[in-house]
Amino acid sequence: MENSKELKLDYPLVWEYKIILEKEHDAKLVGKEVLEDREHSIKKSQDSKKGKYISHTLKVTVHSDEDRKAIFQALKEHLKIKFVL
Q1: d(Cα 16, Cα 27) in Å, to the nearest integer?
Q2: pTM of the full predicted structure?
Q3: Are strands 81-84 and 53-62 parallel, antiparallel or unpaired?
């Protein structure tokens, strides 16, 4: 039995990424650095228990699996982003 659960999505759609930054970094600026002129929104989610990190929800319209994965990779590679979900 094959255990492949490929995600089947109907594009375009709005995708949410959870990004975690140190509190001194501006999430809106980081989003603009990654997505440039592409329309997106960033909303603060919560602070870490000790207040060093802040998580944010970034929403952007993606047009394909490749587009969705490329954005994830670009977020993951950004030096100010500690973690991406």
Answers
A1: 14
A2: 0.88
A3: unpaired
The span from the CA of 4 to the CA of 27, in Å, is 35
Residue 40 and residue 12: Cα distance in Å, rounded? 14
Give the tens place of pLDDT for each residue, 30-51: 999 999 999 999 999 999 999 9
The two structure tokens encoding residue 71: 């954005």
Count of residues making up the chain: 85
* Residue the block writes with tokens 């603009």: 32
| pLDDT tens-place string over residues 47-59 | 999 999 999 999 9
Query: Quick one: tokens of 13?
Result: 């759609």
Strands of the sheet containing 53-62, edge to edge, are 40-47, 53-62, 13-22, 81-84
Report residue 67 as tokens.
């587009």
